[in-house]
Amino acid sequence: MSGRFSRRRLLAGAATAAGVAAAASACGSGGGNTTLTIMGNHPSEITDSDVAGFSKKYPNVKIKFVTNSVQLLTAMFAAGDPPDIIRDQGVQNTPYLVKRDLAEDLAPYFARSTVLTDDKIAAVDDVWRYDGSVQGKGPRYGLAKDYSQDAMLWCNLRVFEKAGVEPPDPTKPMSYEEMLDVAKRITRRKGAQYSAYGLYPPFDVSLSAGVINMVTSAGGSVFNDDYTKVDFSAPEAKSALQWYLDYADAQVGPTVARPLAAGAAAAFFADQLGMVGYGYWFGGEVASNPQVQDHVRFVTAPQFGSTRTSPCFAAVGHWIPKTSQHKQEAWNFFEWYFGEQPAIDRAKSGWGLPGITAMNADLPEVKPYQKQALDVQNAEFSHMSVLKYSPYVAFTALDASLSQAFVKGLESGLSAGRLADLVNDTLNPLLEQGKELVA
């Protein structure tokens, strides 16, 4: 897998785990009077060209990269010398970071900026806002470098053609039951040997995000009103868990207990996977695999309940710690990376939607599959929704708890109700501890 693809698997929950320092890898951009330390993905996301452009504009600032590691970050904070810029996921982590007083309030910087003004910033960037109670309101604490509506699907038309099944309508959402039925009809296997899987559902970026999206669509919430408890035994949540059990029982695709060894992308590009639950960003992978470009289709997100939802699961971007010693230099890099040439270059690559709305005009549409995907995406914008996470527990704990419960449930044949009890029993003590820590 490429660095661009693997970035979606990296756990960006910085400052969410205890640990000791890990070894740091560093590389720089030449001399300078100030060293700006960035914990981010170099060179796959922050490229050498990005660094060179910034160094030309700010020759007195040297950039140093350190390994993107939760353990290292925890140790750097403990030592009182955190990085100046940190990669993270805005959807899941903004409330968590703000409640712990870790992130710098960037509202004064945005107010002074002529590059990153409110009229230029995409609506998705509101996930990086938090007023202490509600995500999407209050000061900005970070910005998304790019994003996708991650419950959308890419279809391999060759798999559908071989099965004699009509592919989904690109703009009419399937129900999750319809999606599972289609997956059953296009799966090809003899015993345990698959020649084609039907579905890799939209849970890869974050298992908890996939489930929370389904629950929200059904009109429920996994959290109580103040986000201090979860209840996966509520009807909407238990229905979502039951769907996953039904999906696993149908044996139409990989599960947390039975993953694909080579990954979903490899199977998709080898015409061995019919539907994969990735957002617009996956078009960047398609661009690198010309053998599949003439038989792919991008389609709208499936719908679980009565409400049509199509959220962003991550909104990966960066934030500046409150204890950074070089906040102005960090902000200068923010403006360069998020609002100038690097952002234009990312938009042109097709590796996600830009955080600056004007740069939507730079998204690729030369090839037929690019134009088709962009047309579907443009229609999908109006269905953007925001997932709600608790500030009292790291999303990595949510994902781990759900994953462990699903593995145990699938291996032991547990019911959805028993799965819900397992998740509740694991997460509610963690939420209680988290609430006490920030009280």
Q: Could you please describe the fold and organization of this structure?
A:
This protein has 439 residues and is of the alpha/beta class. The protein has 2 domains: 3-148 and 314-374, Periplasmic binding protein-like II (D-Maltodextrin-Binding Protein, domain 2, 3-Layer(aba) Sandwich), CATH 3.40.190; 153-311, D-Maltodextrin-Binding Protein, domain 2 (3-Layer(aba) Sandwich), CATH 3.40.190.10. It has 16 helices and 16 strands. The strands form 5 sheets. Strands 2-1-3-14-6 form a 5-stranded mixed beta sheet. Helix 12 packs across helix 13. The longest helix has 23 residues, at 416-438. The chain starts with a helix and ends with a helix. The relative contact order is 0.18. This is Sugar ABC transporter substrate-binding protein. Residues 1-26 form the signal peptide. Keywords: Signal.
Chain-wise SSE layout:
Layout: H1 3-6, E1 34-39, H2 48-57, E2 61-66, H3 70-78, E3 85-89, H4 90-99, H5 107-112, E4 129-130, E5 135-140, E6 142-144, E7 146-147, E8 153-156, H6 157-163, H7 176-186, E9 188-190, E10 193-200, H8 207-217, H9 235-250, H10 264-269, E11 273-276, H11 283-287, E12 296-299, E13 310-311, E14 316-319, H12 327-339, H13 341-349, E15 353-354, H14 368-380, E16 384-385, H15 395-412, H16 416-438
Parallel strand pairs: 1-2, 1-3, 10-11, 13-16
Antiparallel strand pairs: 3-14, 4-5, 6-14, 7-15, 8-11, 8-12, 9-10
Helix pairs in contact: 8-9, 9-16, 12-13, 15-16
Pfam family, one: SBP_bac_1
Protein name: Sugar ABC transporter substrate-binding protein
Organism: Microlunatus endophyticus
